[in-house]
Amino acid sequence: SLNSGDPCSEYTNIQHVGDKIADFNAGGEPLAGRISMGSGEAQPLGDIGEATLIASYKSISGYVVAVFDVKSSSEGLWLSATYMAPDGRQSQSTMYDGPNQLANGAFGTFSFMFEGAEYGGSVILEPFSESSYDVASTTFALQ
Fold it and tell me: d(Cα 113, Cα 115) in Å, to the nearest integer?
């Protein structure tokens, strides 16, 4: 476990549907209630681009993780993400993975991690661009 200084997690109770994993326990905790898939529908980020929520997950180490595909329609798009927990606690992402900026017409995958957050809230994406002064934000529910 992470608390004992061992960086490994134990995965048990692995269940399959056909040849795909359908459920499992991580660190003794069931996956159910800690993961959700996005709708697959792109949402506009003003005139700067569009984002699609791929999936969200509550890790056993206490992070809420949200993964997005983003397509730019502006030069130099970059993102900021804020998480609003179900209890109203708001926090900025503590870790981020993805491109620094996207060129006009480019796309990339971004993940934002929010440490110690309660699962089931929403992520607010705010895009910024070198070539646009549009102010936009789009909210994605994680449920």
Answer: 6
64 vs 9, 56, 81, 105, 111, CA distance in Å? 17, 7, 12, 29, 10
Written as six digits, the tokens of 4 are 């004992």
- Are 15 and 23 in contact, with CB atoms under 8 Å apart? yes
Of the candidates 34, 27, 29, the one whose C-alpha atom is nearest the C-alpha of residue 8 is 27
Q: What is the pLDDT tens value at each position of the chain, 143 positions in all?
A: 445 555 566 778 887 778 766 667 777 777 777 788 898 999 999 999 999 999 999 988 889 999 999 999 999 999 999 999 999 999 999 999 999 999 999 999 999 999 999 999 999 999 999 887 777 889 999 98
Cβ atoms of 140 and 66 closer than 8 Å = yes
Under a CB-based contact definition with an 8 Å cutoff, are residues 65 and 80 in contact?
no
> Could you give the CA distance from residue 137 to residue 139 in angstroms, rounded to a whole number?
7
